[in-house]
Write a sequence for this structure.
């Protein structure tokens, strides 16, 4: 299927495609084995100093998960989560469902701007969306040399903090992906769309 055809599609088909991609993500070993965790432990004493430990998953499992996950956060993709939020809010006929979506959408935007801790690197605040791009473009899917150098320059403690930020974002974003999957399934099952023949782009 060409990219132009993907971008213009019936609203129901778009939600079905979204649910299909979620099912694919859920079937990955990382999710099945509950390997996606947002956990960090910091220890310290006079003898050994400060230590830090995070629940970093198996590299192959993480990469396999991210192949599908990233489709939900890429603007040009037909299952881009921002777009799905907006389509549901604009086209659902049930007020209770719409209000629930309106309450959750700001939280979705917030996880891109604010992590569990505020982290600075070279006097620049490392917001979650920047950290995600750093890993995706500098190591996992692309080799942006500048971003790769940033990752290579990190000391162990800072690297662990940034990895924690990355996992924390993945964990929180996945919860929103599940939420929209659940809502879209309800909307389709109960015929809550204002116009089921609507063509979306």
């Amino acid at each position: 299927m060409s990219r132009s055809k993907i971008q213009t599609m019936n609203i129901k088909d778009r939600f079905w495609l979204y649910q299909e991609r979620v099912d694919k993500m859920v079937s990955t070993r990382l999710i099945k084995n509950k390997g996606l965790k947002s956990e960090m432990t910091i220890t310290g004493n006079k003898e050994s100093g400060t230590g830090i430990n995070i629940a970093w998953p198996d590299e192959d499992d993480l990469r396999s998960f991210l192949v599908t996950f990233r489709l939900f956060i890429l603007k040009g993709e037909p299952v881009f989560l921002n777009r799905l939020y907006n389509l549901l809010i604009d086209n659902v006929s049930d007020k209770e469902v719409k209000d629930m979506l309106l309450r959750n959408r700001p939280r979705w935007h917030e996880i891109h701007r604010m992590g569990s801790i505020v982290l600075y690197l070279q006097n620049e605040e490392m917001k979650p969306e920047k950290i995600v791009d750093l890993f995706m473009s500098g190591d996992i899917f692309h080799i942006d040399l500048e971003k790769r150098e940033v990752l290579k320059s990190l000391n162990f403690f800072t690297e662990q903090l940034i990895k924690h930020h990355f996992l924390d974002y993945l964990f929180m974003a996945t919860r929103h992906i599940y939420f929209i999957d659940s809502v879209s399934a309800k909307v389709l099952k109960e015929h809550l769309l204002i116009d089921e023949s609507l063509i979306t782009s």
About this structure: The longest helix spans residues 156-189.
